[in-house]
Every structure is written in C-alpha cells, then in structure tokens.
Amino acid sequence: MRQETEQLIQAACAGDKEALSKLLTVCQPDIKRFARRTCSTSEDVEDAVQIALWQLYNKIGTLKTIVTFSSWLFRIVERECYRLFRKKLPLHPYDESHFEQIVSSSNDLDLQIDLTNLIISLPHIYREVLILRDIEEFSAPEVAEKLSITIDAVKTRLHRARAMIRQEFQTHA
Q1: What is the distance in angstroms between the CA of the first residue and the CA of the last residue of the chain?
Q2: What is the pLDDT of residues 20-48, one digit of tens each?
C-alpha cells in the first residue's frame, strides 16, 4: 500500500472528512476492478461498488489497523456480489428451504463463509453448473438443457468445479 493511501486511511479513521472523500475516490477503481471479477453482472458490479463505498464511508472509524483495510474493503464487495447473485437465483420454495437446510446443518460459520467464497470465486461456467447441480439439485440433462450445453460438458464442468473447490480447501487447510 502506498504511503499516501496509508495516510489517507489514518486521517479518515481519525474523522477527517476531506481525507475520507479522497479515500473514496482513490479506492473506487480498485474496488470496481475486483467487483468485475467477482460479480455476475455489470449491474451487480455497480451496486456492489456503491455498497462498499457506503460501508467505507460509514464504518471507517471502526477499522482497527491500516493493514486490514484492503481485505476489509474487498470482503464487503465479495459479500455484496454474492448477495446480489443469490437474490437472482430462480429457486423454488422447496429448493430454497433445502438449500437453507444444507447451509444451516453446518455449525461452523467460518466453513460456510469459506465455501460460499470459494463458489463465488469459481469462473462463471463452473459456478453456474455447480449451483444448478449441487445446490438446486437439477439432473445433468436438466442443467444441460438450461445452459444449452451437452451432458458431457455439464459433467466435465461439475468435475472441474468440485476439483477447484477441493484443491482450495486443501491449500488453505
């Protein structure tokens, strides 16, 4: 992190409104770039950036150390992208309650957050197959029809998505 940015963060944490305004301007391009990689649509990118900037504006004073600033800010964007993505999923009442049951069956909140973040971080073609097959529990032929791809492509993408998640869990475990 550049020294200028660190000074802006310190001043903003201390309540300097001018520094906070400059910090919002300085951070926006990085937040937007990150959101483009994380969010599923360009509209979600704009919404996630605005939420992140709003959170930064409202909660900068709660930041404990400058070192955590970037991860704190990007985590806000990541959560917002996921929230917007989930909001658009066409879940049926049965599927939604089933998904909530799966998520709530684990008592480990950190594990839930890590798994959610891993799913979000998957490339779009793998993420959509994984969600349709493993969360919404569509059959391979149904997924193939929804995505206009072959059943073999569904199987390949699902295998790769699961392998990516498994590898990330093993790397961070």
Answers
A1: 28
A2: 889 889 888 989 998 888 887 888 889 88
CB contact burial 79-108 (16+ within 10 A = b; e otherwise): bbbbebbeeeeebeeeeeeebeeeeeeeee
Mean pLDDT of 73-91: 77
Nearest residue to 104 via CA among 95, 94, 112, 92: 112
Q: Which residues of 114-149 are buried (b: 16+ CB within 10 A; e: fewer)?
A: bbeebbbebeeebbbbbbbbbbbebebeebbeebee
Domains of the chain with bracketed CATH: 3-88 (1.10.1740.10), 93-172 (1.10.10.10)
Separation of alpha carbons 149 and 144, rounded Å: 5
Distance CA 124, CA 120 (A): 9
| Cβ–Cβ < 8 Å for 27, 76 | no
| 83 CB-near residues (< 8 Å, 6+ apart) | none
CA angle 136, 145, 137 (to 5 degrees): 15
